[in-house]
């Protein structure tokens, strides 16, 4: 069973517009959530994270929103730039349960069109 | 610091051979993780170390897989009697064990394994 789901395999956005990437989870023990960006033939690069005690975290152009009751989080990128084109992975961990492993979704490929 | 490094970047081996990969974490990080990623999937957790102690292992880590982290510095992942299903990208990550950013894992570039 997939505990972290990214239901959109791909997303295309015009340069300068907002990109919204979505992620759903099923495990109520998850208490920390992260977004990673991955280019081909490279390892994932950490972007932004959020603890379950918060509902929003912002870092420059990137904002992550967490809705615990819906078990849903989203990553907003504003404004989108061509260099943002990559695969984005949502990940979660259950740190309060003493488990530090990350559980990843399958990723969403973002294409930012100039 | 140059980040997490992995060696080799690519490995092609024949079925049945043994392979070993190395990971050097960010120097001040005391947690080290191994993941495996196949095409179209997100990374899947294999195992993690805090210092030299192996604290978590996934059921994906069959008896043919073994990981070590002697002296709590670099780590090795060995796969014995490789099978074609072992073909994947093997990723290493590291993190701190304490502090506000302790849950953020930083990944290396990965080792691409192809078993023929």
Report the mean per-residue pLDDT of chain A as an integer. Answer: 95
Helix segment count of chain A? Answer: 0
Which structural class best describes the helix and strand composition of chain A?
mainly beta
- The overall strand count of chain A is 11
Low-confidence stretches of chain A: none
Low-confidence parts of chain B: none
Structure description:
The complex is a heterodimer of chains A (114) and B (116). With 114 residues, chain A is an all-beta fold. With 116 residues, chain B is an all-beta fold. In chain B, the strands form two sheets. In chain B, strands 2, 4, 5, 6, 9, 10 and 11 form a seven-stranded mixed β-sheet that branches. A four-stranded antiparallel β-sheet of chain B has the order 1-3-8-7, with no helix packed on it. Chain B starts with a strand and ends with a strand. Chains A and B meet through strand 4, strand 5, strand 9 and strand 10 of A and strand 4, strand 5, strand 9 and strand 10 of B.
SSE arrangement:
The complex is a heterodimer of chains A (114) and B (116).
Chain A: E1 4-5, E2 10-14, E3 19-25, E4 32-38, E5 45-51, E6 56-59, E7 62-67, E8 72-77, E9 86-94, E10 99-104, E11 108-113
Parallel strand pairs in A: 2-11
Antiparallel strand pairs in A: 1-3, 3-8, 4-5, 4-9, 6-7, 7-8, 9-10, 9-11
Chain B: E1 5-7, E2 10-13, E3 19-24, E4 31-37, E5 44-50, E6 53-57, E7 65-68, E8 75-79, E9 88-95, E10 106-107, E11 111-115
């Amino acid at each position: 069973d997939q505990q972290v789901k990214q239901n959109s395999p791909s997303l295309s956005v015009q340069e300068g517009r907002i990109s919204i990437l979505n992620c759903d989870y099923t495990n109520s023990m998850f208490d920390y959530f992260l977004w990673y960006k991955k280019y081909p033939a490279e390892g994932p690069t950490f972007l932004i994270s959020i603890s379950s005690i918060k509902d929003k975290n912002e870092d420059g152009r990137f904002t992550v929103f967490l809705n615990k009751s819906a078990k849903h989080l989203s990553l907003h990128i504003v404004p989108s730039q061509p260099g943002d084109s990559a695969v984005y992975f949502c990940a979660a961990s259950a740190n309060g349960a003493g488990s530090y492993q990350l559980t990843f979704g399958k990723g969403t490929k973002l294409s930012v069109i100039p | 610091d140059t980040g997490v490094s992995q060696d080799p970047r690519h490995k092609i081996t024949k079925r049945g051979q043994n392979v070993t990969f190395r990971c050097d974490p960010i120097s001040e990080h005391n947690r080290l993780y191994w993941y495996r990623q196949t095409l179209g999937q997100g990374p899947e957790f294999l195992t993690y170390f805090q210092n030299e102690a192996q604290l978590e292992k996934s059921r994906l880590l069959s008896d043919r897989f073994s990981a070590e982290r002697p002296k709590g510095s670099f780590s090795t992942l060995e796969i014995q009697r490789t099978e074609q299903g072992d073909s994947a990208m093997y990723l290493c990550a590291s993190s701190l064990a304490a502090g506000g950013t302790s849950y953020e894992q930083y990944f290396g570039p990965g080792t691409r394994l192809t078993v023929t």
